[in-house]
Amino acid sequence: MRAAVLGAGSWGTALALALARNKTPVRLWARNSDTYKNLLLKRANEPYLPGVKIPEQVRPTNSLGEALQGAELVILAVPPSGLRELAAAIRGMLPSRPLLVSGAKGLEGGTGLCPSQILEQELKDFRERIAVISGPAHAEELARGLPTAVVAAAGNPEPARQIAEMLAAPALQVYTGGDLVGVEVGGALAGMFALGAGIMEGLGLGESARAILAAGGFREMLLLGEALGGHRETLSGLAGLGDLVAGCFSRLPNRNREAGIMLARGRLPGEGAPGSKAAAEGIFTARAVGKLAAQHRLEMPIAREIGAVLFEGKPPREAAEAIMHRQR
Q1: Number of domains observed in the structure of the chain
Q2: Within this chain, do residues 143 and 198 fall inside the same structural domain, yes or no?
Q3: CA-based nearest residue to 104, from 310, 304, 306, 282
Q4: pTM value?
Q5: What are the pLDDT digits (tens) for 173-228?
């Protein structure tokens, strides 16, 4: 089976490497010309995965048409904020009945939709072939072949099983399921609460403060996830709680947590942070969560405080104190 990975950031590149380890020919599409040249000429993706060699099994391209030619598996590894545009761009290029997989984490800011729901809207003819991948896997560890795990979810078992067969390896466990909403909401809220954990870290409040935020954040994840149709079992597993723990406490680079640290130190995410490649998707998710909580009449005090810092100018320390002293 031939694969295409659309998006050559750290996560997309890591997924391409995982496929290549299983001897799957994969084309890796890079939108950015510098990234494409780096992949092609140096067999590396230094801005995102320094020190990682790109094997010959991975063929870089800057052409969507070339990437998709003959592809039976297509992974869209771009943020939710850019997913709709990419899906619309490939609509007329897709080969016959490919398996379409979203590797995005987050919710669309304006609509509150999960990535799979965006794909269902833009690629209506392929609804039965849409799946998602998420979980606590770090791109850096996946790229280096360190032990990790993800969840593959689809509306019917066959696409999820196919993904597991193509990605699973001794160091990569792929669990399968049918709860797309639970997997996607878990990953999205894990990113938003990682941003909140970054605020706590940037303020120097210590590990216990982050634990308080994570515990309360998990409660809110369950509230919203179940309100949207997700399953508690899914949200309590790798794609929800597992991702939340990894995002809030890992020492590896995390764009959402780094955005929170910047906010705590008086800088807006995106103002030229060293090493920053893109906006933290937790920001878009926080906007969507605020709307969804209001629509479903859910009390989500931690999400509300994160939103107040991001969109209302509330001082981060005041928000952190409100989170620490919230009513249970």
Answers
A1: 2
A2: no
A3: 282
A4: 0.94
A5: 999 999 999 999 999 999 999 999 999 999 999 999 999 999 999 999 999 999 99
